[in-house]
Amino acid sequence: MGKVSDLYRQRVAAGKLRPDPAQEAVLPQMDRVLDEMASTPAPKRSAWRAFLGVGNPQSPPGARGLYLWGGVGRGKSMLMDLMAEAAGDISCRRVHFHAFMQDIQAGLEAARKRGEQDTVRPVAEAVARETRLLCFDEMQITDIADAMIVGRLFQVLFDQGVVVVTTSNRVPEDLYKHGLNRQLFLPFIDLIRQRMEVVCLDSQTDYRQNRAAGGQVWFTPANADAKAAIDAIWADLTGSAAPEPCRIEVKGRQVELAACSGRVARSSFWDLCGRPLGPADYLAVADALDVLMIDGVPRLSASNYNEAKRFVTLIDALYEAHVRLIASAADEPEQLYNEGEGSFEFERTASRLREMQDGAWGTRD
Questions:
Q1: What is the pLDDT of residues 297-319, one digit of tens each?
Q2: Under CATH, to which class is 4-200 assigned?
Q3: Angle at CA 45, nearest 5°, toward 42 and 50?
Q4: Residue 95 three-state SS
Q5: What is the enclosing helix (H) or strand (E) of 69?
Q6: Looking at domain 218-355, does it have CATH number 3.40.1560?
Q7: Is 250 helix (H, G, I), strand (E, B) or coil?
Q8: Three-state SS for 326?
Q9: Angle between helices 120-130 and 97-113 in degrees, nearest 10
Q10: In this structure, are strands 324-329 and 291-297 parallel, antiparallel, or unpaired?
Q11: pTM, 2 dp
Q12: Among residues 61, 128, 268, 307, which one has the fewest Cβ atoms lying within 10 Å of its Cβ?
């Protein structure tokens, strides 16, 4: 196990990072988490209890976690990568919050089918058996199904000795803001404050905005010229192959994309975001592709809130999988969603869309 601060300084010395006082200010908190974990023995897991389906006894309080919040593009994800790297032999899982909650919901469904009375505990204990340190990127809660179980889920994880470090664009009190039955969610905010140190990354620099622009991949407005430009990119990437529909299996269902050639696909905004698709569907799409082209991203507002929410989830999935995005849209990312419910959350999406335009940002290795 190492120190996050050491890795950070090594990257700065190598010219891979620029020193940032706001980032440097949170490094001691990240080091503290790992130091406290190193001085706290890992909780013992009973194989017999697991075999018999009996919950493990509560572990003594371990290291206090970390909730790192701040504006988009301030380096939170980079710091989370360093945290996971510095963890060394500590069993660590670095995962996007969306993807983690998809796994949890799948586990809850399996527990329900087994007839479990308490579906959350066995799922949480299964996570705890494999992981001591959970590193979440981009904690945000907009789904009521997630909102109603996170308090119980994290309480069991904490009781089992799991330490959580997460990033977010929002202070805890603003999570699930204006959500349905939010009063039932409020104990989770109290739990965050009890078990995690809440720290603001107050950098004045948005590193995503400062990346060098690459070849054009975002075309606005979404007119005939934009269509012709994307047609030309399609021809170049696929050797002018005739597009064929493809179907991606997701939990016994199929998500259809109208135009595919190898790991390149093309779809209209409405085919991807106008249908009732969810995070699992978009994660499967991202896993199946290296390049996705989207035609006709409209202006987003309260009038198409559901479609906008799906678009945000889709971009998260593409971003995490390093899928190259080529799109035509009504406006630049920062101007797509300027007011109304969801506009705050879209700032992160706009920042990611801007970053994904960089020529150095692309498909997975």
A1: 999 988 898 999 999 999 999 99
A2: alpha beta
A3: 155
A4: strand
A5: strand 65-69
A6: no
A7: strand
A8: strand
A9: 130
A10: parallel
A11: 0.66
A12: 61
